[in-house]
Task: structure prediction
Amino acid sequence: GESVGLHLPTLSVQEGDNSIINCAYSNSASDYFIWYKQESGKGPQFIIDIRSNMDKRQGQRVTVLLNKTVKHLSLQIAATQPGDSAVYFCAEWVSGTYKYIFGTGTRLKVLA
Amino acid sequence: DAGVIQSPRHEVTEMGQEVTLRCKPISGHNSLFWYRQTMMRGLELLIYFNNNVPIDDSGMPEDRFSAKMPNASFSTLKIQPSEPRDSAVYFCASTPGTGLSAFFGQGTRLTVV
Result:
């Protein structure tokens, strides 16, 4: 059986604090990015997206920041709640292709 | 909208048996993906369909795996014969087009003993 798995970085945050989850993407030609949330036993759930012609996009309690110069994406969650505990994935899409490239994910733990 | 629907949610089968996983994409979506998720490899793309046509199956591990999309509202992923190393969670996702967000089903957890 498998004895070694992907090591997911873990971010532990106190309830009520803000969370920042980071992602480095691989392809400078990527022009569309998505953040997904995956709770235990469930499929990845769309949170927010951003296109490369933007550097910031806000949703309800979430903000995505894109820095194309250093190929970096971040997800900010305001006033983190216990229900935010999950694994968060970033995904990039390269124009002219059909493939979404997923990061390995970050586990967010919200401490009461 | 019911979202992407997968069945079964859980499947336990013996090595050597045939397994068929099913997916109903979101109505109106013309692209469908099958992914496999394991602790070892994370999310892996197995196959991509566009307008019911398989475009890229290079992620399919071997000939034991096959996928079909007979119409816009149904796809299957078949493993024959199944092996213990096929144990994983299999996700189906659909999107209205390339460059648009992909929506995932709840997955099928497959255990091959």
In short: The mean pLDDT of chain A is 91. Chain A touches chain B at residues 2, 4-6, 31-32, 34, 36, 42-46, 49, 89, 91, 93, 95, 97-100, 102, 104-105 (CB under 8 Å).
